[in-house]
Amino acid sequence: MTARHPRTPAPLLVIGQRFLTQLLIGQRPRRTGSLWPSFHSRWPRWKWVSFLFILPRRRRSPRPQSGMKVRPVLSDPEKQRGRSAAVAIAALVIAAGIPLWWKTTETYRAWLPAARISELEALQLELRVEVEVVFARGTLSPEQQKKVPASRMREQTYESCCKSKSLCLVEADHALHTLTETSCGSVVIYIIPEASALLPQDMRVYVGRSRTALLRSQVASVVGAGLPEVLAALDPQMEQVLQTMSFNHQDVTAALTDRLRPGLSTRDSLADSMRAFKSSPGYEITFSLLNPDPKHHQLHWDVEAALDAYIYPLLHKMAPVANFSVDSQILYYAVLGVNPRYDASASAYTLSADSLAHVINPVEARLGSNAASSNPVLNFLLYVPDSLHSPLIIRNDQKQEVASNAFHSPRWGGIMVYNVDGAYGNDTQFPVDIAIDMSRVMGVFLSQLRLMLGFQQTGAPPGFVLEAAGREGVAEWELDRLLWSRSVENVATASASITSLAQLLDQIANIVINDNIAQQVASAVTALQAAVAELEAGNLALALEHSREAISASERAFFDPSLLHLLYFPDDQKFAIYIPLFLPMCVPILLSLLKIFREVQQHRAEKRAKRD
Amino acid sequence: MANIIAVVCASYGLAQSVCDGEDLAERFFRSDHTNNWAVLVCTSRFWFNYRHVANTLSVYRSVKRLGIPDSHIVLMLADDMACNHRNPKPATVFSHKNMELNVYGDDVEVDYRGYEVTVENFLRVLTGRLPPSTPRSKRLLSDDHSNILIYLTGHGGNGFLKFQDSEEISNVELADAFEQMWQKRRYNELLFIIDTCQGASMYERFYSPNLMALASSQVGEDSLSHQPDLAIGVHLMDRYTFYLLEFLEDIHPASQANMNDLFKVCPKSQCVSTPGHRTDLFQRDPGSVLITDFFGSVRKVEITMETINLTVPGIPLERFGGEPHTETALAYVDQLPVAQIIHQKPKQKDWHPPDGFILGLWTLILLVFFRTYGIKHLKHIF
Question: Which residues cross the membrane (chain A) (predicted)?
């Protein structure tokens, strides 16, 4: 038998033994289906024992010679070499290995301006409105006029326009508007004498279409009363005017509803905030004509000209707020989801206010939207009832007819029902060509659009008259109101996004922060601070621009697709990954270090004992 | 001072809108939401997980029936059972034994299908961090007044849910995703329903406000399936969703059933597992929350009282005159030119060399011939 190599694994031994037994005994061992011999083979047990003598035994260690120690003893230089080798390896692992491991497993995190972001959490907004107060002749006595400081002096030429009684109110307002250049956000209040006939008797304040207001002074010019008293008496009225024309506590609270505790805003402001869309970089407006009965009605609507005439002026004015994209469509055979009930007293079909809520859902499935953008969509539907269900009127909760025959849903849009049964008799040849009166339709849609965009139905205080916007769509002071609330909302949302993003990135240590995210965050913070500064200075247009920049940068940073936190490792998984890698390497190093340390201690103890 | 003025202004506002009716304002404020969204996810692949797809599709069907449009539903199905090769009734997915109810229907719109249903895509949909090229139908475009329903089903365990047999989402990740949604105010209220084994572990870690959660089984319990169909050969539905579907079939858009009824769905006697729910993070009382607040889409509607008078003669609009618009009558293009087909001459077919089968056949015949009769005949042939 040849000496076997000690590292041969056992199954090979057994196979080798089978052939050997065949040679020795002349019988092939029966295949039992496994490498190890089964004890149910035909060989008796004692024959298996004979294998033990045939199997070479492995020698684990060299045969010890008598007189020698079992453990080899190293000489001193060898021991020293061993020790320095262990220390060197340990030093290499600690000095180079650990920093290398740390560096290669860290995630790339670009620097974020954390200090400025934490400043944003305690942001204080100061809104400043520039107010110009013009006293007409007759409101101030000459002594008071002299006391007006030089900076507040007005030129005399303005008075002549106010005094002319033949001008009606609107033209006066227009004339005043042309005299002063008002910047965005500022308000001009003209104080006119009590006896003036420009305003009717019960009207105290008239707010025009531009940023001017006419206030009837109710302070009797008492001789001897100083200018400060006059101003103090006028203060509450002026404040009321300003709150109507610029912003009040409610508006600002409504703009900040997200960040405030619920219950701070009143129900009306909550309704307004639910109705209007949140600030968004763009909106899509779709005008649809629903014709359920093309066999009888052939409808023509000149929507392009109507949009040009009525809607686009408003949208152009709103250009600093957001981008708008408008489209229109005609849907045939589109029915409302509810069956109207016939009312014999009015000889018309009626839709009650309760059933209106169920009208929108079946129609919405057919409306479609632009798949390319994620902007909010406003839908304005014009429904022309079919000839069987004409005329169709909408009734409110008190069972009264609604003049506009239209309803709207917050944050969705509006639907108007346009009856055409009066345009033809019974014996006309179908289909009948019908031209839709776009001015009536657009009047309704324009008012609904104003509500959706955030121009609230302002309840004017008593004695106030607010001039309706008319064809222009929106008065300048109404636009200013919207700009104030939008700026505040943008600033609040942007600062909230940035602070929560910073918090998120702090909490989750292994999210990668790319350079572009850091850049977006930095630009958002800069724009936010600029917006706050402009709001303090009173430049509304610049403040809105900066706030729009801030919010778009912060949204882009927050919703960046690379910030997905998929790297949640529970602690036991981390241990399970690192232990098989590091433990086999660290244990020998640690043990050898310990051994060296113990030897050094022993050596020192011996030295001390020798000395003593 | 400002407060007084604010109150004064508020009261004037109310007086102005009295013709709208105070009850309209009541309807407005019973719940804070203006639109509804639903995210329905089935996470299992393979034919024997038919019941998970049927679960998701039955919730989809109820949600559509109660009014939520497809544009507001994100449906994620990890496998296609209706067109599976092993489906004996193709294009159908049944939820009841004896094939009573086909939940696949005619207009199912699946937004994420097959291998697109991953943990990453699910979290991206929830948090909104999708690449800019994602179409609108694959996004969750909710705002701060949206109520969202999230339904998950599949195989789960204590603290995780398995996606596609290859990855899992943990309850910590889910809770963090909801917190990120809350930070950006992407929901007003959220209802989370999960039908998996040990489902209650998935909502243990929630910490954001306005969340309500339901699960089909507690930690340590398995959710069981309902009934197998012998013709199709697999279990059709899970018990919890089966009884949930039965409950929802009785709900219509104007129904006033509330969440307490939903908590009673599938008691232990029917479900074998104990369904659980969690309402401590929810601000309203569950008894005042309607089922249709989450499963349906009841719009708030206001009558338009103000209109703007634009009929002042100003810019004359080019109106469309009353003259009849003569257009040429439109007709369909002749789709099937029958006349051409009937009188068609037979086409000249090109000659092709004989293909493999013919060649093989002749080779076999020749081989047999020469083996039988000997190779000496070869010289007579060639």
Answer: 85-102, 575-597
Q: Could you tell me the pLDDT band of residue A498, with boundaries at 50, 70 and 90? A: very high
| pLDDT (tens digit per residue) in A9-59 | 455 556 666 666 666 655 554 544 444 444 455 666 677 677 667 766 666
Residue B10, beta-bridge partner list: none
- Nearest chain B residue to A372 by CA distance is B135
Backbone angles phi, psi at B192, to 5 degrees: -115, 120
Higher pLDDT, A381 or A65: A381
Interval A260-284: pLDDT, tens: 555 555 666 666 777 788 888 899 9
- Which value, to the nearest 10 degrees, does the dihedral of the CA atoms of residues B297, B302, B304, B305 take? 180
**Residues of B with Cβ-Cβ distance to A248 under 8 angstroms:** 2, 5-6, 9
Q: Say yes or no for a CB contact (<8 Å) between B310 and A446.
A: yes
- Find how far residue A404's CA is from the centre of its chain: 35
Residue of chain B whose alpha carbon sits nearest to that of A248: B6
Cβ of A410 under 8 Å from any chain B Cβ?
yes
How confident is the model at residue B277, as a pLDDT?
A: 93
CB B184 to CB A500 under 8 A?
A: yes
- Helices A114-121, A476-507: axis angle to 10 degrees equals 130
Which residues of B are marked as active site?
A: 155, 197
C-beta neighbour count of A219 within 10 angstroms: 17
pLDDT value of position B227: 83
Burial annotation B84-100 (CB, 10 A radius, 16+ → b, else e):
eeebeeeebbbbbbeee
Closest residue in chain A to residue B252, using alpha carbons only = A358
Q: Which amino acid is at B238?
A: D
pTM for the full model? 0.76
- A568 Cβ contact partners less than 8 Å away, ≥ 6 residues apart: B170, B172, B173, B176
Q: Which of B13, B124, B308 has its CB closest to that of A443?
A: B308
Q: Which of A33, A11, A32, A13 is nearest to A21 (CA)?
A: A13
Residues 192-251 of B with CB under 8 A from A: none
Rounded to whole angstroms, the Cα distance separating A438 from A293 reads 20
Residue A72, helix vs strand vs coil: coil
Which residue in B163, B181, B180 sits closest to B120, CA to CA? B163
Q: Summarize pLDDT for A106-134 with one digit per residue, the tens.
A: 778 888 888 888 888 887 888 888 888 77
Report the gap between the CA of B85 and the closest CA in chain A (Å): 32
* Residue A593, both tokens: 């270090």
What amino acid occupies position B299?
Answer: R
d(CA A102, CA A120) in angstroms, rounded, equals 33
* CB within 8 Å: B137 and A371: yes
Q: Are A446 and B308 in contact (CB < 8 Å)?
A: yes
B183 contacts A267? CB cut-off 8 A? no
Are B51 and B234 contacting, i.e. CB atoms less than 8 angstroms apart?
yes
Q: Is B262 left (phi over 0), alpha (psi -120 to 50) or beta?
A: alpha
Q: Does A442 touch chain B (CB under 8 A)?
A: yes
Report in angstroms the alpha-carbon separations of A455 from A322, A575, B197. 14, 59, 51
Q: How many residue pairs bridge chain A and chain B with CB atoms within 8 Å of each other?
A: 231
Helix orientation angle between A476-507 and A540-558, rounded to the nearest 10 degrees: 30
Model pLDDT, residue A425: 76
Q: What radius of gyration do chain B's Cα atoms show?
A: 32
Q: What's the gap in Å between the CA of B324 and the closest CA on chain A?
A: 7
Quote the pLDDT of residue A286: 93
In angstroms, the separation between the Cα of residue B131 and the nearest Cα of chain A is: 6
C-alpha to C-alpha distances, A18 to A6, A47, B229, nearest whole angstrom:
19, 13, 57
Phi, psi angle pair for B291, to nearest 5°: -65, -40
Of B183, B304, B308, the CB nearest to A408: B304
